[in-house]
Amino acid sequence: MRIIVDAFGGDNAPLEIIKGSLDAVKEYGVDITLVGKEDVIRKVCKEQGINPDTFEILNADDVITNDDNGSDVVKAKSQSSMAVGLKYLHDGGGDAFVSAGSSGAICVGATLIVKRIKGISRPGFAAVIPGAVSKFMLLDCGANLQCRPEMLRQFAVMGSVYMNKVMGIDNPRVGIANVGTEEHKGTELQQETYALLKNSSLNFIGYVEGRDIPADKCDVVVCDGFTGNMILKTYEGVAIALMKKFKGIFTKNLKNKLAASMVLKDVKVLKKDFDYGETGGAPILGVQKPVFKAHGDSDARSFKNAIGQTKQYLESGVIEIVTEKLKEIKAGEEND
Amino acid sequence: MRIIVDAFGGDNAPLEIIKGSLDAVKEYGVDITLVGKEDVIRKVCKEQGINPDTFEILNADDVITNDDNGSDVVKAKSQSSMAVGLKYLHDGGGDAFVSAGSSGAICVGATLIVKRIKGISRPGFAAVIPGAVSKFMLLDCGANLQCRPEMLRQFAVMGSVYMNKVMGIDNPRVGIANVGTEEHKGTELQQETYALLKNSSLNFIGYVEGRDIPADKCDVVVCDGFTGNMILKTYEGVAIALMKKFKGIFTKNLKNKLAASMVLKDVKVLKKDFDYGETGGAPILGVQKPVFKAHGDSDARSFKNAIGQTKQYLESGVIEIVTEKLKEIKAGEEND
């Protein structure tokens, strides 16, 4: 199994990406191709005492940044590490691709270079998020700001298969993010998606309000990419703000520091449980080969986790199952 | 100053509403009219040892619930405590109205019974939320699921005046909720609103991502009501989930309980700081008289705070200033 890694994606590239890749080779026994400026990669390896022959190195001179438009990945930045890596995946150079670079670019690149699964309208950016009890998937988180009901149905199918096969959840509960739980709530998008999912073979539980999203109401939350992005980032923002507040309390004075030392172990577990970094990132669902977005601020640990998730995604057969399910839906509609 | 109170709105009505109203009379020196089933109000007063003559009581036999459609407030439920109270406000029976009842109904009722300020397209549901550093306003939080840019501009004007006059913030910073901070990000709604606010006299700071919303990036966040509702409720949900997790740690064993006792005072302050209930609720901005939505789960303390906020709203002159600003905008456009 060979994972293609964008060595120049993310805030801490290439150093943390290379370190995380090395850890992944050791921990998961995968082969890794690092894509990016070869001379810089070799220099970093040398400085870190890493044997560069651990990896295959594929040169790419350019880098795509968050300031570029997503579509630049197939235009001005077609020689970027991300574009070259995705092309290498498409051409069979490796089995899956991971990048901590621009979310917009990776979604466009996955769609246009790796190509969609037959029948998928638009691939989705699918974040796996720690909830109060267990992890849940939120999609789309920003690949498609405006969506049609049919797209949300496809997100529901893909999210359900992923949570089952990769995250091991039996018969995942699927919900639609909405402003209320009664059937008449929301806009046409929510209402028409409701009708589609109600008549599906999914374990559909109806609408989910924002307040219940962290509260283990369902395993897959579907919504348009604008809403998903706002939920995802508000989620992160509130968790960060509250954790900082607690840190302030725990470091306020000697007495509080003593109290902190007594619960330190438990708080660390909580922090890890609620740490979005632990889940590694988000798969791009709906393309023909596994493409995985690691967090932009990935350090070596987080990036290694992303590679681990990508390996599971690849081994799980998600793409094959989704392809089959879409055929079934299409056949069902033709029989209607 | 007379505040009209919907005695039958919210999860804890009428008991907590009546108790909170009594506390408000004592603390703020306001006159209060309780609207609802008179016999029940008198019975509760008797049971609680409250002199019913503390209040004016206005009978209304019906109650609007969260299961009713918002528009029922002017249809099937026109004899509900909310509808009767809003009518009493419109007719000059009191100076402002507070209810912990259905958000949808109060928005419709405020618009159709109390009527809009001249020039306002649609009133907004404007929540005041505790952030990491200070409180900020998020609007619209659900009155208008789909919005036009002009509506968001009006929300920005109203939110800015409210945060200045009621919350005492000098030159409030206004931002648009969006998936990124670069000018080309988002949908037409965000981009066109950006163009309108850029050319306004507001202290416009551009787009605000979900992650930065709790982080004191701005004092007023404008968005459509669908997005605002998802942000608001996700915000609440994550805060509740994390607080519960900490409670679990603090009650886990004797050692942790001891640690908890050492930081209890500080955690209580934090809980209060982050408690949405402390802010009392959300004004409905854009109608001719102050209408205030208290939290659905208001207890006496939270409802008393809501009355306090309503008093400030009334005294601040927000409505008069907004009316003037709208005239200026209109005059400016006619000069263009």
Average pLDDT score of chain A:
93
Beta content of chain A comes to 15-25%
Q: Report Rg of chain A.
A: 21 Å
Structural class of chain A: alpha/beta
Greatest chain-chain contact = A-B, 57 and 57 residues
The portion of residues assigned to helices of chain A is 40-55%
Apparent shape of chain A: globular
Terminal CA distance of chain A? 42 Å
Order of helices and strands of chain A: EHEHEHEHEEEHEHEEHHEEHH
How many strands, which pairing sense, and closed or not: the largest β-sheet of chain A? 7 strands, mixed
Q: Spans of chain A of 5+ residues with little confidence (pLDDT < 50)?
A: none
Description:
The structure is a homodimer. By secondary structure, chain A is α/β, with parallel strands linked by helices. Chain A is about 45% helix and about 15% strand. Chain A has ten helices and twelve strands. A seven-stranded mixed sheet of chain A has the order 3-2-1-4-12-11-5, sandwiched between helices. A five-stranded mixed sheet of chain A has the order 6-7-10-8-9, sandwiched between helices. In chain A, strand 1 (about 1-5), helix 1 (about 15-30) and strand 2 form a beta-alpha-beta unit.
